[in-house]
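Dear colleague,

Thank you for sharing your sequence with our group. We've completed the structure prediction you requested, and as agreed, I am returning the results in plain text so they can be pasted directly into your records. Please verify that the sequence below matches your submission; if there's any discrepancy, let me know and we will rerun it promptly.
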Amino acid sequence: MKLFRGEEALIQEIDTLQPSICTPLGTIEFLLSVSNECYFPTDCFRLKQGGFFYQYQYESFDCELVICKPKLDFASQQAVEECWGAVFRIKPNINYSISTCRFSAFWQEGYNWEDYGSNTGEDLEAIEYENENYRLHLGTQDAPLLIARRDQGDMIPKSLCLNTDFEKYGFIISSDKGIEVPMTPIDAEETCQIHFVIAWNRNIEEDVSTWLAVDLTSKQILKREEIW
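Please find the predicted structure tokens below.
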């Protein structure tokens, strides 16, 4: 690990080089695009608590992706069947910068959800997908929170500048395909971090557990695997 930290986190190398999560509604893939070119991991390892660690080692940048189960802190009456988080970190190599990049959580073809809609909240950009049997939420941090993280020096490029409501609330792209987070230029000394969370449960009327489950920080996602 170069961009994440963790003690003896990597325990086994495996062959799965397409980061994805299988859900009852279909498979969601996590994609990285740099300068309009899609990049795939070069290595994949299993983590000690059942998560996955992906490395993207290229000439101009290093990227790492951790996919793992967060440690949820729910009230006793709230529960989800399953929840997974995916945390990207990317950093240009020395003498390089990244002009543009995109982080995506998109459905593979063959999904079986029947309806979807935006279900955002404070600091949260989320989409709800459902069929007769299951409800699933896919979420990420919204643009105003990314701006706040930039101001705090919390792994968001200094170049991110969203001055109008249109820029703020149209920056992250949510659709039937999933969620895409574009990013402005990243300088050589900067690290950028973006995450996604997926949670699903049986489709129970007025149950908000999956919506609450995707409203997490990266620290909460990584805690179970003892990575930071």
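Summary note from our side: The two ends are 11 Å apart (CA to CA).

Kind regards,
the structure core
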